[in-house]
Amino acid sequence: MTAPPAPRYTAILLAAGRGSRFDADEGKLVQRFSGADTVAVAAARACLAAMPVLAVVAEEGSLAQALRDCGCDVAILDAGAAREMSASLRHGLQQRGQDHGWLVALADMPLVRPATIAAVVAALQAGADIAVPAMEGRRGHPVGFSRRHLDELLALRGDRGARALLQAHPVREVEVDDPGIFADIDTREDLERLRGR
């Protein structure tokens, strides 16, 4: 008799945003960050150390290829889709809706440690419906969701992400020692400051 398949959890890496506050023509996600890795690839590698990754990007191109090359599955947003966070999340969930849960990761947060990602996923596997890393009383990213919240996640609109779900439902805070859960890159100054960490 065959054993049932193990529950599957996937990181959905949101990498389709415009990055309008970043002052470079090619965007923040393709900037060099660590060694040969770009910002988005560094974020993807942290997730890949703990789980499979589906990266959602706006179009085919160098970013999509770099993410494939590092081991991610890649989903391209439909040409007419809004490039807001909720559209990217919905697209990723539509590709992986059969999973038991998802880690929603942001491609402009390359310093989250793999151990943090593994701890959030472990909380989901232990029965949490929503799990979030926390440090010194503050919540950070990435956020994990069980399949129980699939319909609510698919109903999200706009760029507020899943904040409303975190306010409406119990959340398991996973205490970590990882300042990377707060460190995102919005500007060139952020990039320069975080490269040194």
UniProtKB/TrEMBL annotation:
The molecular function terms of the Gene Ontology recorded here are: nucleotidyltransferase activity
Name the coiled-coil region(s): none
Per the UniProt record, one Pfam family is NTP_transf_3
Q: Which SUPFAM superfamilies match?
A: Nucleotide-diphospho-sugar transferases
**Start and end residues of each MobA-like NTP transferase domain:** 11-169
- Give the UniProt keywords, A-Z: Magnesium
The protein depicted here goes by the name Molybdopterin-guanine dinucleotide biosynthesis protein MobA
Q: Which organism is it from?
A: Herbaspirillum robiniae
